[in-house]
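[Automated response] Your request has been received and processed.

Submitted sequence:
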Amino acid sequence: MSQPQQNNRRDRNYSTSRRQEETLLSETLDLARITRVTAGGKRLRFRAVVLVGNRKGVVGLGVAKGADVRLAMQKATTQAKKHLVSVPIIKDTIPHQIQVKYGSAVILLKPARQGTGLIAGGPMRVVLELAGIPNVVAKMLGASNKLNNARAVLKALASFKLPVGYILETPEAVMENEKKAEIFMENDEI
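Generated structure:
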């Protein structure tokens, strides 16, 4: 009798994770041919950089190599789904200005008023779109490496300071979060 209950529990967990995966959108940031020279000649592989996000405050990045493009893309997508970051979105923008360095890439993110739109270029734009942040101003100050800039943006999005008591991704707390966000934004003018 206990085994059927256990199977039902597995089915429920599987369907929940399956629904979450279906809502995640995937976008390829970079696809590169990698050649490794060995004693017998050259060995060709592919490296894929894939971003996933639900446009509602969740985004992830995956990097993987494979013998062919399809395999590299699948591996990178799986890795991106394992490394998701929750992004705080307050009044359709980010909580505060932030500058982050990752490797030689330096990025600057600034909050923007409603109606400004997403002002960013290259890999930063893709990450911020998949995160679902509609109003932000962003600038790449360091190197132009796509992978390092994308990782710098993810590092910045994961390191925001939030108002005291602010809860991420809880539908019941949306009204309370908006009140706290208003107080926070009044104290920290844009």
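Summary generated for your ticket: Residues 12-16 have pLDDT under 50 and may be disordered. The chain has two domains: 2-85, 87-187.
If you did not submit this request, please reply to this message.
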